[in-house]
Design a protein that fits this description.
This protein has a single domain, classed as Aminopeptidase (3-Layer(aba) Sandwich). Helices cover about 30% and strands about 30% of the residues. It is built from six helices and nine strands, in the order ββαααβββαβαββαβ. A five-stranded antiparallel sheet has the order 1-2-3-4-5, sandwiched between helices. α1 packs across α3.
Length: about 200
């Protein structure tokens, strides 16, 4: 990855602080990832113990701050700076955007606010584009993608591990540079069943 990308620089918005996760955030990580309602559309199984939260925090977040540059944010309310969710952007070819919030913070515009702030940072850092995918059964996530300016490109079918579910994922993309016609075809080429839906 290019050295131009900072390693999760802190961002402030009207209501939230986006910062790196820290070791002290274990309880917050557990509260987020153990919730079965939140977990339905996450690519991990629900956490069962605090020890699992310690391992997830270390492997998914803390180690990445040590070993790579990128964007792996804890979403925190300014009132207490305790993580209520995350926004991440991968540094592989997909530049995949992912986000989640604890369910008591749904429908308040916080995910949109957080993602918009991260996108502005990505523009400053020169990332050329981002993609994001959502389960067709989770239109709420798709609405966030639309609100931050992303455009639907195509849908593909994947056998989702480790949950062993067949999922139809809708891919959205936002080009951050002048190449506005770019479409990331990685998933289209990887999965045999793919198609373009109308009226998304």
């Amino acid at each position: 990855m290019s050295s131009q990308y900072e390693n999760t620089p802190t961002i402030e918005t009207k209501r939230i602080i986006l910062r790196r996760f820290e070791e002290k955030d274990v309880d917050a990580v557990y509260n987020l990832y153990q919730d079965k309602d939140v977990n339905i559309f996450l690519p991990t199984l629900p956490l069962r113990t605090k020890n699992e939260a310690v391992e997830l925090l270390k492997e998914k977040y803390l180690n990445s701050y040590q070993n790579a540059r990128g964007y792996k944010y804890a979403v925190c309310l300014k009132s207490d700076l305790v993580p209520i969710g995350y926004v991440v952007v991968s540094m592989d070819e997909s530049h995949d955007l992912g986000y989640a919030l604890r369910k008591e913070f749904w429908n308040k515009g916080l995910a949109t606010e957080a993602v918009k702030a991260v996108i502005e940072r990505l523009k400053i850092d020169g990332l050329p584009y981002i993609t994001a995918t959502h389960d067709a059964n989770n239109p709420r996530s798709g609405r966030v993608m639309k609100k931050v300016g992303m455009n639907y490109c195509y849908t593909y079918e994947e056998l989702w591990k480790p949950k062993n579910l067949t999922v139809h994922f809708r891919l959205f993309q936002l080009n951050l540079d002048s190449f506005q016609e770019r479409v990331y075809k990685g998933y289209w080429n990887k999965y045999k069943k793919h198609y373009v839906e109308r009226n998304i």
